[in-house]
Structure formats: C-alpha cells, structure tokens
Design goal:
homotetramer, about 220 residues, mainly alpha, 2 domains, about 75% helix, about 0% strand, DNA-binding
Chain lengths: ~220, ~220, ~220, ~220
DNA sequence: CATGAATGAGCGTTCATTCAT
DNA sequence: AATGAATGAACGCTCATTCAT
C-alpha cells in the first residue's frame, strides 16, 4: 500500500473537491456499482433460475473482474442475499403503497404477491436458495441484521394490515403475513420443481385457494 | 442346494450365524442392508443436519465400502431421497393409524406432525434438501415415481380426513394436508435456520397457530 | 469344499462314464464356454467398437455371472487379447488356404486383409487396444506366448509368400507381411478415429495404394 | 503504474526480480507458463512413458496448483495433445530446414525421423495415446483444428519432397510421408511394447528397411 | 463350478476466494 | 480501486477383481 506522502506526489493536481462532496460522490459511485452487480446477477439468474450461478458469470455480466465483485460483496452467498433482499423490499414497498392507498385487502395483497413473487421466475427460487444458505454460509451478524430488517418490514406492514381487518389483534398482522409467506414458499417447493408442470399453471390457483383459507381463518371471512 | 440332512451334518452345532451376514444374498437380506445404509445416513445426518454429507461418511458409518453403497442406491441424491421418503411414509402411516382409531382431528394430526416432523432435527432439513435436488439431480423417472407415491398417500389420507370434517368436499382433504405441509415447510425455513434460536422454541407454537388458522378457514372451526 | 465322502453320497447314481471321455467332455464344455464368452465380448464390442467395454456387459451378454467369466479368462485384458488373437488366426488361416490354392499374390492377400481386417469394424480397434495393453497389463509370460504364436504364423505364411515372389529371400516374406500389417495398423489410427470420416471411404483406397508401393519396393513390381 | 522514480525509491537496490514471476500477466509470460507446464508433463511422462499420468503429478512437477494447470489447458487430453503436437511440429520444422538445405533425400528424412521420433522414448507412446483419445475425449472442434494443422504441415513438407523426387506427382509427397508415418507408428506398436526388447535394438533397423522398401516402391529406387 | 455381492483405489474437474500486481 | 492469475480443497462415481456362499 502506498504511503500518504506518495499519494500526494502521484496525484498532485486534483486537490479541490470538498471532502464531504467527494465522499458522497464516492459513496454514490460505490452504491451504483453495487446495484450494477446486483443487476448483473439478476440477469444471469434469470437465464437459468434453477442452476447455481458462478461468480465468474456475474462478474462477466457486470463487465467487471471477478476480484472486483468481492470489493462490493464479501461472498457469493451475501451477494445473492442482497439481491433477494432487494426483491423482498420491493414487495414490502408495494404493500406499503397499497396500504397508503387504502387497498390492503386480501385481493390487493394477493395481486401484489402475484406480481412480485408468484409470477417472477426469480423470486421464489432465489428465496429458497438464500434461506438455505442463511445459517450454513452467512456470518451470524449478517444473518441477524437481515432478519431484523425483514422483521421490521413485517411489523410495519403488519400494523397497516391490522387497520384493515378488525379481527387482527396487535401482532396479528405480522403473524398473518408471515404465515402467508411461509405458505407460498412451501407450496412453491412442493409444486414447482418439475419440468413437467411449468410455473404458473395450477400454482397460482392453489396458492390463492390456500391463502384465502388461511386469511379466512384469521380475520373476518373475505369475500369468497 | 444341500439337503437338510447334509446341513445337519456339516453344521452340527451352531444354529444361528455367529456374526452379521457378510453378504446379502437373499432378497430380505438385501432389504435389510438397504435399511442399514439408510440408518447410517440418518446417523451421519443427525450429527450435522445442515452440512452436506458425503458418501464416504455414509459408507463408513454403515461399515461398508463406498462402492457397496452404490449397489443399493444409484446416487447420493437418491439415497437421501429414499431416507426422506421413509420419513414421509412413517408420518403417513401414523396418520392412517390415527384415522383408523378415529383420532384424525386437528389435535391428533398436529400431535403426529409434531412428533414426526417438527420435533425431528432431521425431517425438515432433509425435506428441503431433497425437494431442492428433486428436479436438478434426480432422473425424471425417479422424480415422477416419488411424486406419484406421495400423491397417493396424500389422496388416501385426504379421504380419511374428509370423513372427520363435514366442511371438506372431495379432494379438500388432500388439499388441506398439502397446504398444511407447505405451511410447515415454509415456516421452518424462515424460522429455524438460526443457531441463536434452536428448534423447538417458538417454532412449534407458531406453526400450531398458523395451522389452526388454516384449518379454521377450511372446515368447521376447530376447538380454539 | 465338499469331501470325497460327501460327493459319493450326494451323487450316488451317475457312476458310469469312463474317465478319459469324461475329461474330454468337460474339456469340450469348457472350450465351448470360452468361445461363448468370446462371442459375447465380440457382440458387445461390435455395438460400440470404440468404447471400452466392461466385464459386466460381457458377462451379461454371455448370460453368465461376472465371476464366471473370470473362471475362463484371468483378466479383461487377456479376454480381449484372446478375442483379438482369434481374429488374427482367422486371417492367417485364410492366408494359408489361399496359399494352398495358389492365390497368394498381392491381390489375393489384399482381398483377405480387406475382408478380415479393413472391412471389419472390430479388427483394428481391438488390435490397437490389445497392443496398447500388451506390456502394460498382461503378464510377460502371456505376452511372450502370444508373440511367439503370432511369430510362428508370420513365419509360416511368410514362407508361403516366398514361393510366390522370387524377389523375396528367406525371411523376406515374414518381414513383408509384418511391415504390411504395421502400415495398416498405423494408417487406421491416423485416418479412422474421426466421426467426420466414417470407415471405408478413403481408408481402403489409401491402404491399398500404400501397400502396393510397399510390396513393389520389395518384390518384383506387382500388376499395377 | 508507478513511475521509474517511485520504483527507485520503494525498491532501492534490487533491480531484477529475485525470483520467478509469481503471476503471468503478460501474454508472453503466459506462453512461458504454458511451455513450463508442457515441460513438466514431458518430464513426468519421461519417467514412465507407458503409465497414464495424472494432472496432480504434472502440476506438482510444474510447481503449480492443480487448478492453475486448468487455466492453461482445458483437460488432460488436450494437455497431452498439445505436448504431442509440439513434438510433431519439431519434427516438421526440422524437415523443412533440411528441405531448405537441400537434404530432403531418404537418408536425410530417416535421420531426422530417427532423431525426433524413433530415438525418443516419448514420441511414439505419446502419439499412440493421443491418437487413441482424439475422437473419444477431445472436442471435435479441437480435433479438427489439430488435424488441419497436421495436414497443412504434411502438405507443405510433401511439396518440398516432390522437388527432390521426380517420381512423385502432386500430392504424392504428402501421401508418401503419411504412409511412412503410419508404418513407423504401426511397427512401434507391434515391436516396442516389450520390456524384454528395449527400444532401439531391432526397431531402428526394421523401420529403416521397411521405409526403404516403401520409398523404393514410390520413387526412383534409392541407393539401398 | 457358479454366483454376484463386496471391495476401494483412483481421478479429473470445479469454483469460491485470495492476493500479487 | 481494480484486476485476473493462482489456489487447492472437495467429491461423486466407476469397475476390474475377489471371495464368501
């Protein structure tokens, strides 16, 4: 590593930009790179949602060297976890927006879940893969932080849900969301991994039916 | 083949074999050896339910050579699948017995599910692992056969379930079992993979709560 | 193993056949089995002349157990060598017959070589395979015996050849046969191993051309 | 990149790198490493020309990790093929040089063939091994490219040969070279694989005799 | 003689990660 | 910060041969 003195010599001219701005710019650039890598991983994964992808592929798709990827993500598992979390947050964001628009009823939630997860060729395979690696390969600090963030989303959206359904007591919203999510995850694993039955055939319908029952058992019976 | 008389002469005293049969020539001895390998795999897996085990470990635990294991199972994935299926069948068998004893209500099912799956350190991790490998690594013929067997169990137990709950129409029993199973599988993945929260703490309770809601939404409301 | 006394008891009736005949019958039966195994190996090999075959395949094709094959051939290499030698002897036998019929000129030899080796999908691949294993995997005693037998054939046929060509001195016939054989073997390896150029296209023609030159260089110029 | 001045400061005394470059970053360094691996393979092979070598041995001999070898050669078969081709090219290069020096008569060719192939403990065993694996284990694109390169060499040297021998028509040179090569390859397999008769005894003499006949049959009779 | 279950050494290849440049 | 060459542990599977039955 080069000493400060050296640096002063080799970068003699560019002195100007104020510290804060510079840092901010760098931070922006860094975040941009991160997103670019995630986008690359997503692209690669979309081409073959089931196959386990390699870091070389991701790096190539991001037009970066393999080593560079490791400057932004400490491991493959955490890279994939970050991608997964981005998708989770997209879903929660959509749910919150629906909540603000007063459309957080069963149909509204189902539609968003369908759009973000059920119909995405990526969401559920990636979710399963990441959950499997969570405790085997991810440092516990990272795992805990991830779980805490998801919990917070869950709690927040759960609260919103409780506004819409009188039958839900405090915490009941988060709990309902959680079990709904579990249900979807489990059903996908039991139904989807089959080339004979491509994705959306019965899966969408079966999930809807089960979710409807689950919600009916929790809150005042929905339309059905 | 030697006559009984001869046998009496040449093996005069020792009636039962002094040691475990070294070679499995009869069909039942072969089945026994198969089970022994499965037991060995189970033992190895129990020591570290999360880690991916190797065939060498299994062979060693079974006191057999690596190649011998491959006489009984064509691949690691199919060995694990067989182990998983054995556990699945144990559960279904227990459910059928409960059905015959007229105890196939929610509490009865929950208790059996708890005993066989929730409380087993093996069942759910193995289930997830096998489901993940089902389409990636298992020949489609084997996959289809496995699915068909499980479907048959599901249908049979579903029918039995429909006897107990007037609210279930034909096929509703299997469907309810299926979504219950999905729910458990999903919740396990979301909750369990954490060394900080060892298995049975909240998991059991949360699963019960969610299952109860699911069933309540499907059939005449259970006790709760 | 059973004692003589036991044998006397368990095979009480069949006493008659004279020793010699019996041995001869057994020897015949044994030889028949040997040939049957060789035929099975040939059949398997014909199905895929390039692939390395397994003893299990041979045993199955011979409708015998794997272990039984080892009662007749001490190893896979020697089994294949025996098969190869049988083909070599077929060729030599045909050459001798041609010699006795006075047709051991170039055209006659070429025709027989073509029929037995060039046109056979088995001969040359097997020859190369066996030659490769000769010193690596075959006991030296077996190797020497094989070489001696082939040398004898070579010498005998060489002598016959010398009758037809005044230009050949003593030993020249065997030498010419030997180099002809080498030429064919080498050309096959350089030309054949290609899916793009299936066997008989140019190979036959090129071999003939080269052989003709070789013979022309040795003896009084042949017809061409 | 650091300026010369800087370098002078940070690495004040030692001018040339004290040890072999650890990383091959430049194209020529990469080529050098490729050659080093080939040299290592050659060394290992020389120790036991018949035995099938392993990549681990090659890597160890090259003082590299096993994985590194795979950065330069996609498979063992292609590594060996590259080594073989290097030897083939050495031979063709020598033939061309002889041609330019006007010494491409029979004696000249024989001497070069002797030096490069017959007397090398490596050349012919490796040639046979590579020819055997060419269609079984090498991607067809690689195979075709290899064959094309050898064909080009053959054609070029064949043309040169035709200058020296009036009796050779167009294409006759390549054809003569080709059959000569076949003859050598075949004779080596028939004669050499024997520990009782180490290489150079009769082999050299027999090859010469056969080649002489082959050439005599093609062109104006050489001295003999 | 016949069987076929059991053996176990042997190996090429991948790929996440590191670190010299 | 960026690169990409180097690393090396990890592993499932085959199959010729043996030998208990």
């Amino acid at each position: 590593m080069r000493s400060r003195a050296e640096e002063a010599i080799t970068t003699p001219i560019v002195t100007s930009p104020p510290r804060v701005t510079r840092r901010a710019l760098q931070a922006d650039a860094k975040e941009e790179r991160r997103q670019r890598i995630l986008a690359a991983a997503e692209k690669v994964l979309l081409a073959a949602p089931h196959r386990e992808i390699g870091m070389a592929e991701v790096a190539q798709a991001a037009e970066l060297a393999k080593g560079t990827v490791y400057l932004y993500f400490p491991s493959k598992d955490e890279l994939l976890l970050a991608l997964h979390e981005r998708q989770v947050e997209d879903l929660f964001r959509a749910l919150l927006q629906a909540s603000e628009a007063g459309r957080l009823d069963f149909e509204g939630v189902l539609e968003l879940v369908d759009r973000h997860a059920l119909s995405s060729p990526l969401y559920l395979p990636l979710a399963v893969r990441c959950l499997a690696s969570l405790d085997a390969a991810v440092p516990s600090a990272v795992r805990s932080a991830y779980k805490a963030r998801v919990s917070a989303h869950l709690k927040q959206t759960g609260h919103a849900l409780e506004q819409h359904f009188a039958g839900l007591d405090s915490g009941g919203g988060a709990s309902l969301l959680f079990s709904s999510y579990s249900l979807i995850l489990g059903m996908w694993q039991l139904l989807s991994p089959d080339d004979a039955h491509p994705y959306p055939l019965d899966f969408r319908r079966d999930v809807e039916q089960a979710l409807r029952a689950l919600w009916r058992g929790r809150v005042a019976p929905p339309s059905n």
